[in-house]
TrEMBL record:
It is a multi-pass membrane protein. GO terms for biological process: transmembrane transport. This is AEC family transporter. The lineage of its organism: Bacteria, Pseudomonadati, Verrucomicrobiota, Opitutia, Puniceicoccales. It is found in: Cell membrane. The chain crosses the membrane at residues 6-25, 37-57, 69-89, 101-125, 131-153, 165-183, 195-215, 235-256, 262-281, 293-316. It comes from Oceanipulchritudo coccoides.
Amino acid sequence: MELPIQTILGAAIPVFALLLIGLILRRTNVLTKEADVSIMKLVVRVFYPCLFLDFLIGNPAVKEAPNLLAAPLVGFLTTVAGFLAGYGIAKLIGLEKGKGLRTFAFCNGIYNYGYIPIPLIIALFGDRETLGVLLVHNVGVEVAIWTAGIILISGQFHRGTIKQLFNPPLIALLVSLMINSSGMDSEMPEPLLRLISMLGACSIPVGILLAGAAIADLLKNKGVLENFKIPVASILLRLGLLPMVFLVVAATLPGLSTELRQVILIQAAMPAGILPIVLARHYGGEASVAVKVVISTTLASVITMPLWIQFGAWFVF
């Protein structure tokens, strides 16, 4: 598969532009911190579940057992592999427990698996099948975060975190699979499907704007550019070593569908996600380390993301 750099840039630029707009809206106080909670609830409880319903109901790719099994397994294992690699690199650069080692590993292990890859997949591959497989894949990522990830960042197992897995998007996924398996997907009323599609379409732009606003808040942190070994190591790991590992998996692992290989290709190029900062703060991690990991990889991905996607398309396909 050949993806011209112009095509990749055409898909990536609107995403980064939305991040920038969100940053500007926060800096100009148009999008206030007070509004974040209500908007995020709207995204998580309404828009995002509707996106799941829109792209999963009647999607032939998620009716295939291999995708339903392999996609979440790949999501889980690639995230855990990121945790392990991050732990090793953290030790290599001299981080210690209680001083950022766990946080470095946790944040580098969690790639941006939602708001950035979704519009990229829509723009680059233009089919419901690949996006549906991505959404199923992300269930595995979330399982890894709320089990192995929380144990890593906190040093202990928290029973309450399991409840976080039963969220509106997962419920939407299960409802979609039930509708598909019962054959009701072909009998859904068209007006209802259009309504779901309209609501689901709101999730990505609104979510990215909120992410941009969050980045604006993070840039205010004092010392975000201090101790360069953490940002440099994060960029080399998250945007250097791990992408190559992902692409080797996509190219060599037998039995993977084309859609799942495309998902792995896009995820390989992703920076660290923003969610780990919130979790690091909540579970006793080093918030300053989390901020450095996220900011450095997000900024660097403006350059590395198109290059990895172009190389990966050639390497995997």
